[in-house]
TrEMBL record:
Domain NIF system FeS cluster assembly NifU N-terminal: 1-124
Organism: Jutongia hominis
Pfam families: NifU_N
Family annotation (NCBIfam families): NifU_clost
Highest taxon listed in the record's lineage: Bacteria
Gene3D superfamilies: 3.90.1010.10
UniProt xrefs under InterPro entries: NIF_FeS_clus_asmbl_NifU-like (IPR017787), NIF_FeS_clus_asmbl_NifU_N (IPR002871)
Gene encoding the protein: nifU
UniProt-recorded name of the protein: Fe-S cluster assembly scaffold protein NifU
Upper lineage: Bacteria, Bacillati, Bacillota, Clostridia, Lachnospirales
Length: 134
């Protein structure tokens, strides 16, 4: 049912935890299942590159695996490039998810967007294409 990559990121998730004094934090809930995801970003002030990214979740295995992959994918990107890390891109990187688990991958994308929004608000900058969290 799950790809090897999903199982790998689920059993050995990368970047679990929190960042003290994070420059951006985003917390979202999944309306479908009630699960929660929080993403922390550490952004370089000058280059706007995401130096560190951590996550915490009360979520299922697919939520853990997608967040783990998503944190790896945004690291090293600028806050502008990070928008390319969509749930679709994350699912592709994981070699797919079962259809019933697709909504779980939205948690990671939404939490990253919420953290980027938080950062942009605090620094008074605009990230083109970024919508405010619901
Ligand atoms: Fe909550 Fe999947 S329904 S963990
Ligand atoms: Fe709730 Fe996966 S995040 S079922």
């Amino acid at each position: 049912m799950y790809s090897e990559k999903v199982m790998d990121h689920f059993t050995n998730p990368r970047n679990v935890g929190e960042i003290e004094d994070a420059s951006g934090v985003g917390t979202v809930g999944n309306a479908k299942c009630g699960d929660i995801m929080r993403i922390y970003l550490d952004v370089d002030e000058d280059t706007k590159v995401i130096k560190d990214c951590k996550f915490k979740t009360f979520g299922c295995g697919a939520a853990v695996a997608t967040s783990s992959m998503a944190t790896e994918m945004v690291m090293g990107k600028t806050i502008y490039e990070a928008l390319q890390v969509t749930n679709k891109a994350v699912m592709e990187a994981l070699d797919g998810l079962p259809p019933v688990k697709v909504h779980c991958s939205l948690l990671a994308e939404e939490a990253i967007h919420a953290a980027l929004w938080d950062y942009a608000q605090k620094h008074n900058i605009e990230i083109e294409g970024l919508k405010p969290p619901k």
